Description:
- The chain has three helices and 17 strands.
- The protein is of the alpha+beta class and 287 residues long.
- The longest helix is centred in the middle third of the chain and has 19 residues, at 111-129.
- The two termini are 23 Å apart.
Amino acid sequence: MKTPLSVYLPFNRDALRGTFEPAKSGAVPATHEGHWLVVQDQGLLVEPAGEGFRLPRGAAPKGLGAAADPLWLGQWHGEPCWVVGLPRDAAPPAGLQRETLVPMRGTKLPDELLSLGGMAMQGLWWESTSSHCPRCGTRTERIAGEWGKRCDRCHYEHYPHLHPAVIVLVKDGDRVLLARKREWAPGRYALVAGFVDNGESLEGAVAREVKEEVGVDVTDIQYVGSQNWPFPSQIMLGFVATYAGGAVAIDPEELDDARWFPADALPDGPSRHSIARFILDTHARSR
Length: 287
């Protein structure tokens, strides 16, 4: 079966094209040497390299202080990747600069570093939310060779949580229905999206979110692709659906506006880093 191009979107591990091996598949390296993913306030600390950037490499960057309690993420190009979090108000170590990982903030990082940085962010988020058992409150310990945690008291095991969300392009012939949130830049529109509820199918979530947010009904719901979205731990499941009736009526708690646009005259939209852009580029004009 042909691999859909959406798997190579940044933040998907597939974007690393086989150069990365996750930590859970091997033994922890004996020394803290290798590539360093230093995360600070949804940004990655990197070294300038010509017109681009690279990760600090070797021993832990000087100046991390108490933050240097590294999490092993895995092997990239055969070398360990270590993750540390730096407090928001801490000064970056000498020679490093912070570059945002957030596409909507105009990230300048290449796809490889976005994907590694996204995994680092999710790893740190998991560490910060899994230190105690959700069942009995006892401190947890990492399960050897896994990302999961185990409680020594009640033996409950839990694993990193991914929160599924659907994102959908609604089409009606040569026009598409796009929406915007109040906090977005003026003139920017994107696809309808929302989290999957308990007990819902993905298709059911698509139909419900579209109805709730923009007031219309849809049919012929088709899956397109998916993207890991580490803000902080989502998986975006992309769909295309056909308009089936109803007048556009926004939920003002969720949206600032929604309207139909000609498929060949779209407004400013999501960046190339997102599955929303991928869906627009590959399906807005398709029949």
